[in-house]
Write a structure and sequence with these properties.
The complex is a heterodimer of chains A (91) and B (1003). Chain A has 91 residues and is mainly beta. Chain A has 1 helix and 6 strands; from the N terminus they run βββαβββ. Chain B folds into 7 domains: 108 residues, Ubiquitin-like (UB roll); 206 residues, 3-Layer(bba) Sandwich (FAD/NAD(P)-binding domain), CATH 3.50.50.60; 127 residues, FAD/NAD(P)-binding domain; 94 residues, Arc Repressor Mutant, subunit A; 148 residues, Gyrase A, domain 2; 89 residues, Aminomethyltransferase beta-barrel domains (Alpha-Beta Plaits), CATH 3.30.70.1400; 96 residues, Aminomethyltransferase beta-barrel domains (Elongation Factor Tu (Ef-tu), domain 3). In chain B, helix 5 runs parallel beside helix 12 and helix 13 packs across helix 14. Classes of the chains: A mainly beta (91), B alpha+beta (1003).
Chain lengths: 91, 1003
């Protein structure tokens, strides 16, 4: 069970948060111009890697803010948390 | 048979307090401080149970949580009985009533024992191989297999005991109260850190505390006396909490640990009343020190499972700690020095030690020398090849080992005994370390898996024998040195400590000891609880299983309630030997929590009964209760389902309510619908993006129905949204979807459209909603709000008015979910019950009838209105629901729009919502029933299913909604609903059954 450093509230127990899947998948600005395949790529395709993964998290039972997290899925180490719209601090 | 095997020396058992208990109905005595196992052994009882598969007689093998055999049923009360309790762990209390498991009619004569003689026919995978054919017979076999499987009996009534959960935060958690744990706790407390020390026993000190041997000295006093002083000194630290009888169950990431504290299991039944039985600690520790110790390994030879065969270290604990002789003619069998310490303890207590069989060629360690000087007889370079005695070992046979240890040579010689101690070396308890994510490495010198210091998660350390340190000086010195860096200590109270101990520890490891018989004729048990033998493991390998995880499951090795603590290592060793693999490369099976079994009570704590989940009640709930409402759970809400009158059943009540609502007036508590207050200069644009239809042109004061999709184009939620002001809306959602809709909207606002100036606030609980419908609804509202102009001109359908009821501000919306002329009063929740009562009084002359969710469902189904979640299931688009009219085709974008013309969503043969009428108008379909066209052609194609079905009192016939493949095109088509004992003919219709022209809205 992680301890997550919410960028707005500080360290809190994982039970206060919910995970929203892979981060940095931007909703297309012009969906109508996309082919079925391109839209499907946005809609369905998600990475599930062993190693450094970028994720969206929501402090659901706290400030209700969404933010991003860099997590190593092989050992669950959280390498960074950062606000929405900010660039990831690690590659 | 009954004999007293207690000796009179020791400091640990209170021999002045006698405790009576029962085992298999026989009344026996023990002393305070005994475990059930030590008390049974003191009464010369070894046979305590039967094994799982072969029903072989089994006895007490160990003295701790690793016990595979001595598991018993405690008590026989239907709600309090406890199965699978380890006799080696349960403390004796007055009135303890234990009985053997897995045997019938009794442990001494067990019918299932026939399996032992059938064992050549019950190899690994026997069940998989035998019961797979003929196909379809599994159900017949299963009955018998289920009845012969299983260990103890589960209680049949609910558990009356109280269980607790508690959170705890500390700087340092020390797991294990042996010598390294005690030292760790003291060093941590000395440094001023908030420290918790837990140990699963009733006493601290591990195995050192009863090590009464002059060869072990710390600072010139015997190590046990030194440790006793250290334990005493822990009382001086107010920042140290010590928890006995507390077993660590799980070690999760980020130093989150679960521990189960036993609070009353050692008390007599009378002393337990009103007390919490067990407490589950949820501990978040900044640092964790694992000092979980090690357990002794058995040796693997034929018939190594007879009652009376006990781990050598356990024999030592029974004699030194409990003062109990495990026999009167004991021999020992070993591959290392530990058994000699047992031999010396037994000798000093006056117990006859016949021989020590040692597979090593010799040893010149101090302990061995001491034993030889006492006159103990050692058979070097020898192995036990077989044992005799059905319910208790009587004798064993020894042969010489060949030089390479692969074979036996010479003749068998037989020795009589009533107890055989076995010692195969030590296994560090690395369960917790690996649970936390640590990786192991294999140490070839003594064949142990130990924590890899380079692959240890941060903020934890393993000390003592769980870290592979077995000599006293190693344990003490390394614990101090490692903790200095781990806890950043400069100097400690242990600096300059002096240790004297035997320093040589040689071992000769042979995983499967050779025999003069072929392996097929021997029974070398590996997993004593699940009855898997070395033979089974070898068979699995021959049959092609390679992964240790597969071998484990195929042979069930390590899958009992003891999780193979005792002999998983031997299984791995035999696999490595047979396949020629290095054990380090082979690795171990995964150690999963809990370390020892947890009770369900401890897991659920107080979250039972009414505390299982939160219950939400509307502000009008008390009135519903007073008026005999039956309630339905909708999410966490309690909603009135129907209001039975004068002994009505549900059907009668719903028919009456439905009729009254259309004939005159009905009233519904709709407070549970989700309400989201939306404000901001971009509120209209926001609604344009989240709903399928257009919102910008909605006038202030008007309401609109909206459909919300997921990005995949499937219908997600629906509800009416009202424009309160230029930049102010109030949205309603379904009852069950309220929280998820709010999260979803927040998600889009924060992450995709941060440029929008919109603020969302949930107001579901702040406002209550009272819905009044029917031709007389207007008359009732006129009575309650006399000044309000209710004309269609001033207050048309789909609009709202701000007004007052008895000086309380409220909003009245003219919206309808029944198709009737109706009003929804929204009012602050604390006034809701009063207003409801006012409505009831005003409606008396119009037979205003309260109705519940069932009538609401029926009325909307008459109108063909969907309920998301009932008529939809996340696979239907608006077009599938025949709601194409609600899609704003001119809109640039909204959530899910692009998905509405994917190749899959434009298929014409998708399942689509239709109405159904039954040929026989009295026949009501079952919701969920399948629809087919042709029942003669097999396989029968399933075309769809019924989603809603009712008997309509207003139409006097059965109506239903269904989803059907290509349903839109099939109007008028006859289909069949096949039921268990009949086929029901139905016809596809329009989804609207009642008032197709919507005349009643303005009636």
């Amino acid at each position: 069970m992680f301890i997550i450093n919410c960028p707005y509230c500080g360290e809190r127990d994982q039970t206060e948060f919910s995970c929203g899947g892979e981060a940095h998948i931007e909703r297309p600005k012009q969906p109508t111009e996309l082919s079925d395949d391109q839209w499907a790529e946005y809609l369905f395709m998600r990475k599930n890697i062993k190693g450094i993964q970028f994720e969206r998290w929501n402090h659901a039972h706290g400030c209700r803010k969404w933010f991003n997290m860099v997590r190593d899925t092989s050992n669950d180490k959280i390498q960074a948390v950062y606000k929405m719209g900010e660039k990831p601090p690690v590659k | 048979m009954s004999k007293n095997l207690r000796i009179n020396k020791n400091n640990f058992i209170d021999q002045t307090t006698r405790i009576s208990f029962k085992f298999n109905g026989q009344k026996l005595f023990g002393y305070k401080g005994d475990t059930l196992a030590s008390a049974l052994l003191a009464n010369n009882i070894h046979l305590v149970g039967r094994s799982f598969k072969y029903h072989r007689p089994r006895g007490i093998m160990t003295c701790g949580s690793e016990e595979p055999n001595a598991i018993v049923q405690i008590g026989n009360d239907a709600s309090l009985t406890d199965p699978n309790v380890r006799a080696t762990e349960i403390e004796l209390y007055e009135g303890l009533d234990a009985s053997s498991q897995n045997c019938w009619p009794s442990v001494n004569f067990d019918i299932g024992g026939i399996n032992n003689f059938l064992s050549p026919f019950l190899p690994a995978g026997f069940y998989y191989k035998t019961f797979m054919w003929p196909a379809g017979f599994w159900e017949k076999y299963e009955y018998f297999i289920r009845h012969s499987a299983g260990l103890g009996k589960a209680p049949t009534r609910s558990d009356p005991d109280i269980y607790d959960h508690q959170y705890s935060h500390c700087d340092v958690l020390v797991v294990g109260g042996g010598i390294s744990g005690i030292m760790s706790a003291k060093l941590s407390a000395e440094k001023g850190l908030d420290t918790i020390l837990i140990d699963d026993k009733s006493f601290l000190g591990g195995s050192t505390i009863y090590q009464e041997n002059e060869s072990y000295k710390i600072n010139n006093i015997n190590s046990n006396k030194w440790l006793a002083n250290e334990i005493e000194s822990l009382k001086n630290y107010s920042n140290l909490v010590i928890k006995n009888r507390t077993s660590l169950a799980a070690f999760h990431g980020y130093n989150y640990l679960l521990a189960r504290e036993n609070l009353t299991d050692h008390l007599s039944i009378n002393e337990r009343k009103g007390k919490v039985r067990q407490r589950l600690w949820k501990i978040r520790a900044k640092k964790v020190i694992i000092a979980s110790g090690s357990i002794e390994r058995p040796l693997i030879f034929s018939n190594n499972d007879r009652p009376g065969i006990i781990l050598s270290s356990s024999i030592k604990k029974y004699i030194d700690y409990y003062g109990v002789k495990t026999g009167e003619n004991i021999s020992l069998f070993t591959n290392n020095d530990s058994a000699y310490e047992t031999g010396i303890s037994l000798y000093k207590s006056g117990v006859k030690v016949n021989v020590i069989v040692d597979i090593r060629k010799n040893s010149d360690s101090l302990i061995v020398k001491e034993a030889l000087e006492l006159g103990l007889k050692v058979l070097w370079g020898s192995t036990v090849v077989d044992t005799q005695g059905y319910k208790r070992i009587k004798s064993f046979e020894v042969m010489k080992l060949s030089d390479d240890g692969n074979n036996v040579v010479g003749d068998r010689s037989k020795y009589n005994c009533d107890c055989l101690g076995i010692s195969g070396g030590w296994t560090p308890m690395v369960h917790l370390f690996t649970q936390s994510g640590g990786k192991l490495k294999f140490r070839n010198e003594d064949n142990v898996f130990i924590p890899d210091e380079n692959k240890t998660p941060s903020n934890q350390i393993s000390v003592g024998s769980c870290n592979g340190e077995f000599k006293l000086n190693e344990i003490v010195i390394n614990t101090i040195e490692n903790l200095k860096s781990f806890l950043s200590l400069s100097n400690t109270c242990y600096d300059g400590i002096k240790i004297i101990c035997p320093n040589e520890k040689s071992k000769r490891n042979i995983w499967l000891l050779p025999s003069d018989k072929p392996i097929g004729k021997t029974k070398p048990f590996l997993d004593f609880q699940n009855d898997s033998t070395a033979k089974d493991v070898k068979l699995a390998l021959r049959e092609g299983f390679k992964s240790i995880e597969h071998v484990k499951r195929y042979t069930t090795t390590g899958m009992g309630t003891d999780q193979g603590k005792l002999s998983n290592m031997h299984a791995l060793g035999i696999i490595a030997d047979t396949t020629g693999t290095n054990m380090g490369e082979l690795g171990t099976t995964t150690f999963r929590p809990p370390y020892t079994p947890l009770t369900f009570g401890a897991i659920v704590g107080r979250n039972v009964g009414e505390f299982f989940d939160q219950t939400r009640k509307t502000a009008i709930h008390n009135w519903h209760v007073k008026n005999n409402a039956e309630f339905e759970n909708v999410g966490q809400w309690k909603r009135p389902w129907y209001f039975p009158k004068d002994g009505e059943n549900m059907h009668q009540a719903v028919q009456r309510e439905s009729k009254a609502a259309r004939d005159s007036a009905g009233i519904l508590d709709a407070s549970t619908l989700g309400k989201i207050d939306i404000q901001g200069t971009d509120a209209s644009e926001f609604l344009n993006r989240v709903y399928t239809n257009a919102w910008s042109k909605l006038e202030i004061g008007r309401c609109r129905y909206g459909l919300m999709l997921n990005e995949d184009g499937m219908v997600y939620d629906d509800g009416v949204t009202t424009r309160l002001g230029e930049n102010h809306y109030i949205m309603t959602t379904t009852t069950g979807g309220a929280a998820n809709v709010l999260s979803k909207l927040e998600d889009y606002l924060q992450t995709e459209w941060p440029e929008l100036d919109v603020y969302l606030t949930t107001v579901t609980d702040q406002y209550s909603t009272i819905s009044i419908c029917g031709p007389n609804s207007k008359n009732i509202i006129t009575k309650i709000v006399p000044g309000l102009d209710l004309s269609d001109n001033n207050f048309p359908h789909m609009s709202f008015k701000n007004t007052k009821i008895s000086n309380v501000n409220c909003r009245i919306m003219r919206i309808s979910f029944t198709g009737e002329h109706s009003y929804e009063i929204n009012i602050q929740s604390n006034y809701a019950e009063d207003v409801w009562i006012k409505c009831m009084e005003a409606g008396k002359e119009f037979n205003l009838t309260p109705y519940g969710t069932e009538t609401m469902h029926l009325l909307r189904a008459e109108k063909g209105f969907i309920i998301t979640g009932q008529d939809t299931d996340g696979t239907l688009t608006p077009s599938d629901l025949q709601m194409d009219w609600i899609i704003g085709k001119k809109k640039f974008d909204f959530i899910g729009k692009r998905s509405l013309y994917r190749s899959d969503t434009i298929r014409e043969d998708r399942k689509q919502l239709v109405g159904l009428l039954t040929e026989d108008p009295k026949e009501v379909l079952e919701e969920g029933a399948q629809l087919v066209e042709n029942i003669n052609e097999k396989p029968i194609e399933m075309l769809g299913h019924v989603t809603s079905s009712y008997f309509s009192p207003n139409l006097n016939k059965s109506i239903a909604l269904a989803v059907v493949k290509s349903g839109k095109k099939l109007k008028g088509k006859k289909l069949i609903v096949p039921m268990e004992n009949k086929n029901i003919n139905v016809i596809i219709t329009d989804t609207v059954f009642y008032d197709k022209e919507n005349k009643r809205l303005n009636a």
